[in-house]
Structures are given as C-alpha cells and as structure tokens.
Amino acid sequence: xxxxxxxxxxxxxxxxxxxxxxxxxxxxxxxxxxxxxxxxx
Length: 41
Hints:
The structure is a single chain. By secondary structure, the chain is an alpha+beta fold. The protein has one domain (2-40). The chain has two helices and two strands. A two-stranded antiparallel sheet has the order 1-2. It is flat and about 35 Å long. The mean pLDDT is 80.
C-alpha cells in the first residue's frame, strides 16, 4: 500500500515516526501539494 500512495499521492511528508521494543516501527505520512502538507503539520 505504501508504494501505491508514493506513486499516486504526489509529494510526501512524514508526520510521525516511532520505534517500540527496537523492532516495531510506526510511520505516518501525508501526501499532497506543499501548501496542503504545511496545513497538516
């Protein structure tokens, strides 16, 4: 699913990144135009 969003969503910005127990990772991305991404942050 991430590669579909990367190909279709335009520019990306990472909103959150975390690691739990040194192996589980959670990243949240917003896709869209730069002005929209600024409003999401």
